[in-house]
Design brief:
The complex is a heterodimer of chains A (247) and B (313). Chain A contains 10 helices and 10 strands. Chain A is an alpha/beta fold and 247 residues long. The two termini of chain A are 36 Å apart. In chain B, the strands form 2 sheets. In chain B, strands 1-4 form a two-stranded antiparallel sheet. Chain B has a two-stranded antiparallel sheet with strand order 2-3. The chains are: A alpha/beta (247), B mainly alpha (313).
């Protein structure tokens, strides 16, 4: 299996505080990798360094063998890397359908063709399919700001998949989502993984969600990887139990 | 229903100057010109979320381009071309600070630019005639149609407004409009979805500024005499007021805002010395209770009646 994402000795320091400290790992094609760890362990900083939101202090990141360190987030997205953020990030004044079209439109044609071309950038049908897939059909014409938190979360995740990415980094997708919606979200993610062979990296505190979804888990504490393995191995790892899972 | 309303407004705009005295027609023409400038600012501020206090400078650049060219015998269309190109290029450059700073910091950057343009207009007498201004700016003749009379010039301005409105309508409904809105609402998320926020920011400044320039090209032959103080900070603040009062980020916001700013004070003149006080009170009440402007107020009313209808069904 080839590595879609390679992270080598990545470090990020804020002044004297080291948030990420020499982290290395690979993510293979079709894999769902979980990234867990206590609050402040450096998970989101690691995501932001990988995805160009923060410049790393040291280290290298490669996508399909190509160095991407220092690339802007929009350039990475066009390389097929999608993401969601820890906090909800939809565009409240746009409708659900327009949120999804926006999430894919910059992958279509040139900037000029997007000005003179179709209003939906040729993505209307794809957006409708995504709306249907994420069970948001009744809300397609609603402004995203009018949706419940859980519905906005689903939309947020759906947007990350709109451009058909190869790799998606999901930052706490299950945060504050009710159990019914969470089960639906897990099923949607599994289906995309199985059908589209998309590769995921998931940061999550909901252990039931992450253990049932991911095929491999990395545990981060104080900016370092302290454990790596299958969900069952991680559950039994004494270091992880001490640092994060508790008795 | 919407189409009937639009048709009704168009008929009203065509019939409006008949029966009005020259000053009334001048005010209508001024409303048209200021609407174009406010449409530009609405694109930069309302849609793309980039604050600018420099719109008056671009109106000034457009007006001086028109005045300098047409008083030398050049046709007005050449001024339209040159002013649009100039403002587009300068607006693009002015967008660069917006890539680094936002909100009130950006306001001060654009304010500095506005002051710089004002100083050039006032001090570079060899080009602009400084505080003496430029007079005798001719109105154009188009394919044998002279726009010298106020009513003819009003229709000329109205034609330009129609073209600008159609182009802006197309723009804001295109994927560019969606990207501008995304830039305003959440630039970080937009960036992560592949939206080149840098390029869209620069485009928002460039296009908004070019529309300011077009308004200036019309302003010069409307007033037929220009001098630098007309394009000082006061006009930038008035244009900002138009966008905010009308409804920032609403397509029709600048039309309404310009009407409030240009026409309302005149309608309040029956109150004689009190008219500016009444006008200021109106603006303060509106901003206090509906910061999203008149169209925001209309939308709130529409949403609440729709909710009420749902509940009583």
């Amino acid at each position: 299996m080839s590595a879609v994402l390679e992270v080598r000795d990545l470090a990020k320091a804020f002044g004297g505080v080291s948030a990420v400290n020499g982290v290395s790992f690979d993510v293979h094609e079709g894999e769902i990798l979980g990234l867990i760890g206590p609050n402040g362990s450096g998970k989101s900083t690691l995501f932001n360094c990988i995805l160009g939101q923060l410049p790393p202090s040291a280290g290298e990141v490669r996508i399909d063998g190509r160095p991407i360190t220092g690339m802007r987030p929009c350039e990475l997205n066009r390389l097929g890397v999608g993401r969601t953020f820890q906090l909800l990030q939809v565009f409240p004044q746009l409708t659900v359908r327009d949120n999804l079209i926006l999430a894919g439109q910059e992958h279509r044609g040139s900037m000029w063709s997007r000005l003179v071309g179709r209003r939906d950038a040729g993505l209307g049908a794809a957006a409708d399919r995504m709306i249907e897939f994420f069970r948001l059909a009744a809300l397609a014409a609603e402004k995203a700001g009018a949706l419940s938190y859980g519905q906005q979360k689903l939309l947020d995740v759906a947007m990350a998949f709109m451009a058909g990415p190869r790799l998606v980094l999901l930052d706490e997708p299950a945060g504050n989502v009710n159990p019914t919606m969470l089960a639906g979200l897990r099923e949607r993610l599994r289906e995309i993984n199985a059908v589209e062979h998309a590769t995921f990296v998931v940061i999550e505190h909901n252990m039931e969600f992450v253990m049932s979804l991911c095929t491999r888990i990395l545990v981060l504490a104080e900016g370092r990887i302290i454990a790596e393995g299958a969900p069952d191995e991680i559950r039994r790892n004494p270091d992880v139990v001490e640092a994060y899972l508790g008795g | 229903m919407k189409r009937i309303a639009v048709f009704g407004v168009l008929v009203l705009l065509v019939l409006a100057p008949f029966g009005l005295k020259p000053y009334g027609i001048y005010l209508l023409s001024l409303w048209v010109v200021m609407t174009i400038a406010a449409i530009g600012l609405n694109l930069t501020l309302g849609y793309a979320g980039q604050i600018s206090l420099a719109q008056a400078a671009f109106v000034g650049i457009g007006a001086y381009t028109a005045a300098l060219l047409t008083t030398q015998g050049w046709p007005l269309w050449s001024a339209f071309l040159l002013a649009t190109a100039l403002c587009l290029a300068i607006g693009w450059l002015l967008g660069y600070p917006a890539l680094r700073v936002q909100h009130h910091y950006l306001a001060f950057v654009t304010l500095s630019f506005s002051t710089l343009v004002f100083l050039i207009l006032r001090n570079e007498e060899w080009l602009t005639k400084g505080v003496y201004g430029i007079s005798g700016i001719p109105r154009p003749t188009l394919l044998g149609w002279s726009t010298k009379a106020p009513v003819d010039f009003y229709f000329f301005c109205l034609g330009v407004l129609a073209l600008v409105s159609a182009a802006t309508w197309w723009l804001v409904r295109s994927p560019w409009g969606r990207a501008f809105t995304a830039l305003r609402e959440n630039a970080i998320r937009a960036d992560s979805l592949g939206v080149d926020t840098r390029r869209y920011t620069l485009m928002a400044f460039a296009i908004g500024s070019a529309l300011g320039g077009i308004a200036g090209v019309l302003y010069a032959p409307l007033v037929q005499f220009i001098e630098p103080t007309a394009f000082a900070l006061n006009l930038s603040l008035t244009l900002l007021l138009m966008v905010i009062v009308g409804g920032s980020g609403y397509f029709l916001g600048p039309f309404l805002g310009a009407a409030v700013s240009v026409l309302l004070p005149e309608w309040l003149r029956f109150s004689e010395g009190l008219y500016l006080i009444l006008y200021a009170i109106f603006v303060m009440i509106l901003m206090a209770f509906c910061p999203s402007g008149l169209l925001g107020l209309a939308e709130r009313w529409r949403d609440s009646t729709a909710r009420l209808r749902k509940l009583t069904r």
